[in-house]
Amino acid sequence: MKVLLINGSPREKGNTNIALEIIQETLKEEGVDSEIIWVRNKPVSDCIACGTCHKNGNGKCVFNDIVNVISEKAKDVDGFIFGSPVYYAHPSGRIIDVLDRMFYSGKKHYAFKSCASVVVVRRGGTCSFFDVLNKYASISSMPIISSTYRNMMYGREIGDATKDVEGISTMKNLAKNMAWILKCIELGKKEGIELPENPIESMYFIR
Are strands 33-38 and 2-7 parallel, antiparallel or unpaired? Predict the structure, then answer.
């Protein structure tokens, strides 16, 4: 079992990474492998709706960058955690651009795999953040993992998150819950429980 943790902060070793490292260490204690991927601090293109990823049938985005790297790794992992600092009560634009293209080009790689979002905040804006990030999972048949409080840590300056005692326990409990769900799913597979089939009937309001 393996979990992919996506660091959507422009700071590679900032408070978002601290939160993800706490989760990573706890996953290790629970016997679950993990990898943290930083989306870097270089410009990332948003989706231009060209449809090339679907026309080619390979699920690869026309912009060959970190998105295709993540999508390739996504084929072989069992869960995902998306982390980002709060910008104007919203996730960073960088992680939004990455997730838009990830889920549009390679949605099949994410279905029925567990998912959670983690927010690092100076003061407020967490509810809006969760609403945005959790929507990717909710339209992709992904079980959303919770903790014992909202998956958030407080901190402004780099390192401040290490002082958030409740935030640290929340990250640890999130990792434990993720590991538990992954183990349950793995046991279900061994018992022959099949994944559900989810046919979609699309409806357009303008005819």
Answer: parallel
In the chain, the amino acid numbered 90 is H
11 backbone dihedrals φ, ψ, rounded to 5°: -100, 115
Q: Which residues contact 83 (CB under 8 A, 6 or more apart)?
A: 5, 6, 7, 8, 9, 16, 17, 19, 20, 117, 118, 119, 120
pTM of the shown model:
0.92
Tell me the two tokens of residue 29: 């204690």
189-196 long-range Cβ contacts below 8 angstroms, 24+ apart: 195/112, 196/141
* Spatial contact of 60 and 105, defined as CB atoms under 8 Å apart: yes
CA distances from 67 to 14, 96, 139 (A): 21, 11, 19
Instruction: Determine the Cα–Cα distance for residues 125 and 108; give it in Å rounded to an integer.
Output: 31
Confirm if 6 and 98 have CB atoms less than 8 A apart.
yes
pLDDT in tens, 139-195: 999 999 999 999 999 999 999 999 999 999 999 999 999 999 999 999 999 999 998
Cα angle 129, 84, 88 (rounded to 5 degrees) comes to: 50
